[in-house]
Amino acid sequence: MKDSIQDKYYLEKEGNSFFQRNISDKIPELRKSKQTILDNIKESEIQFSNVLEYGCNYGDLLHHLKKNENIENCIGVEASSDAIKFGTEQYSDLISLYQGTIADNIINENKKYQQFFDLIIIDDVFGWISRETIIQSLANIDNVLKDNGFIFIRDFYPDKLVKNINHHVKDEKIYNYKVPNSHASIFLSTGVYSVHWQKIFFDNIGMSTDYKCDNIFNYRWTDIILKKSLGGLFNESKQI
User: Which of 61, 118, 210, 211 has its CA 20 to 30 A from that of 165?
Assistant: First the structure.
């Protein structure tokens, strides 16, 4: 595994800082951002029974899926040890949470989970992955997803390659990396994935804050569901 200052920083500090900045005294059954993901998954009408969420925070979406949608297995991987501790105390009877990154976590090491999940949820995580470990992360996602399974991705949808410094971090240079047409485009370029469902939208709240970007497309996002198909998307060219 390649060393990554950025991934290490999230595991040891910024993951917990993010959790503490956003946790409230009154915990909703499902945070608003996760409710929109749930609504979109339902709108897409995909079917699944084993779900893995990367960047699950304390696991409220996974808990909802297990409790209210009767999903068989709900597992989360999260950088913040504080979020894992909190979520385990709240929901450990229904879901399983593990600390790690997409590039380095206990799920990757367990052969049971190879080609196991039929839905993987990745909510605003790709941009925070260091470029040292992004390729490994993509490979790990594909390795645990079944053929004909789905990936839900919420990610920036800019018009060009761009990076922004995380303005919450003062002691390191930690970036958010944005890829044209979102990181979903990397999966699509393999010919193994196709778009099953998609919405594109602008972050109007982000556009109204004091933190301004020099390109309006830095505020454009997508919610997209990809379907995996090993070989099924290719048209065979025949000799004539």
Answer: 61
Residue located via tokens 């084993």: 50
DSSP SS3 for 34: helix
C-alpha 66/C-alpha 83 separation (Å) is 19
Question: What's 218's DSSP letter?
Answer: G
Strands 220-228, 145-156: parallel, antiparallel or unpaired by DSSP?
A: antiparallel
Based on C-alpha coordinates, what's the Rg of the chain? 18
Question: Under a CB-based contact definition with an 8 Å cutoff, are residues 140 and 102 in contact?
Answer: yes
Domain boundaries defined on the chain: 5-155+193-202+223-228
* 8 Å CB contact between 76 and 98: yes
Q: What is the 3-state secondary structure (H, E, C) of 102-123?
A: CCCCHHHHCHHHCCCEEEEEEE
DSSP code, position 8: H
pTM of the predicted structure, to 2 decimals? 0.94
Q: 117-126, 159-168, 216-225 — which one is most confidently predicted on average?
A: 117-126
The CA distance from 79 to 223, in Å, is: 22
5-155+193-202+223-228: CATH, from 3.40.630.30, 3.30.1360.180, 3.40.50.150, 3.40.50.720 = 3.40.50.150
d(CA 197, CA 29): 26
Degrees, nearest 5: CA angle 203-208-212: 90
Half-sphere exposure in the Cβ direction for 216 (13 Å, CA):
3
Please write the tens of the pLDDT for every residue from 168-196: 888 888 999 999 999 999 999 999 999 99
